């Protein structure tokens, strides 16, 4: 009887690894929550006009950017001057991972960010302190709740010739290309319009008003979220892809079927 009770007590004990697993899960959840909170707080708390943010940005600039852009951001043979580039340009280039460059090429490539959002804003604060330039966009224009129809019209007139009407991107000359705009953060879309990165022209508020920029962002959000009611999009790059699909796949199936029927009849 005593032995039976002892066995019952043993069967009720937790596995030695259960505590370790519980602690590990707790650390992961806490770490993820802290990282998300830190990211949000950094975005909200960095004052681009504060001297502390500018000083921290200058330190980051000297350690990571001065080799190409010069110690005073005056530019060198390897990188353009950033005087007057503005906070929006820095936030776009660094925030999308284009800067620092991975290698010299026709244009900067999108890659994972090498700086936190706080550090990116500090770099933007430093460059913005050197001379007036395009500022970070106001939150009210980034919500994606504008006029989608007007945004579609503006996009077709101003952007589709390079980025494709479905924002799928397209090839340019000399190895350059217009990137796809699906999945791009509204902040970066707005910043690209006001700064004209790489091959893109600048769309000032005189060309496209802030509200019209918000409408374009709303159209891009609509493209991101709408279902592909026509079936396979084939990359959404237009009739060339669709025609190629018909000629290679469609005619290939017809030829194969013809050969099979002929072989059977013999």
From TrEMBL:
Entry binding sites for heme c 1: 65, 68-69
Predominant cellular place of this UniProt entry's protein: membrane
Transmembrane segments: 244-263
Record-listed E.C. numbers: 7.1.1.8
Topological relation to the membrane, as annotated: Multi-pass membrane protein
Subcellular location: Cell membrane
Enzyme's top EC category: translocase
SUPFAM superfamilies for this protein: Cytochrome c (SSF46626)
PTM characteristics: Binds 2 heme c groups covalently per subunit.
Keyword annotations: Cell membrane, Electron transport, Heme, Iron, Membrane, Metal-binding, Repeat, Respiratory chain, Signal, Translocase, Transmembrane, Transmembrane helix, Transport
Residues forming coiled coils: none
Catalytic activity: a quinol + 2 Fe(III)-[cytochrome c](out) = a quinone + 2 Fe(II)-[cytochrome c](out) + 2 H(+)(out)
GO molecular function, one term: quinol-cytochrome-c reductase activity
Domain (Cytochrome c) ranges: 52-131, 146-224
Extent of the signal sequence: 1-35
GO CC term (a single one): plasma membrane
Entry-linked InterPro entries: bc1_cytC-su, Cyt_c-like_dom, Cyt_c-like_dom_sf, Cytochrome_c_Oxidase_Subunit
Pfam families, A to Z: Cytochrom_C, Cytochrome_CBB3
Positions annotated to bind heme c 2: 159, 162-163
Highest taxon listed in the record's lineage: Bacteria
Subunit structure of this chain's protein: The cytochrome bc1 complex is composed of a cytochrome b (QcrB), the Rieske iron-sulfur protein (QcrA) and a diheme cytochrome c (QcrC) subunit.
Protein name: Cytochrome bc1 complex cytochrome c subunit
Source organism of this protein record: Leucobacter chromiisoli
Upper classification of the organism: Bacteria, Bacillati, Actinomycetota, Actinomycetes, Micrococcales
